């Protein structure tokens, strides 16, 4: 039973370290800027990426709530 508890604690520690890693702040910042409607080319420059695909495919994350918000915008247009 102790080995299982030890493994569980190691997994928890890894998870906490991963989520609190300072580099995750860059991902969050980029995603929040995109959600706020910041021009993607401006965001690329702020992030310091030479290729926009890095900004769009690695740092800019999409979730279901963001998709729903964008779809609501379309409803207002149509």
Q: Please report the distance between the alpha carbons of the first and last residues.
A: 60 Å
**Could you give the order of the helices and strands?**
HHHHH
Helical residues, percent: over 70%
The chain-level structural class is: mainly alpha
**Number of E-state strands:** 0
**Binned strand content:** under 5%
Largest pleated sheet = none
Low-confidence segments, given as residue ranges, are none
Mean pLDDT: 85
The global form is flat
Notes on the protein architecture:
The chain has 78 residues and is an all-alpha fold. Helices cover 79% and strands 0% of the residues. The chain has five helices and no strands. Helix 3 (40-47) packs across helix 4. The longest helix is centred in the N-terminal third of the chain and has 19 residues, at 2-20. The radius of gyration is 18 Å and the shape is flat.
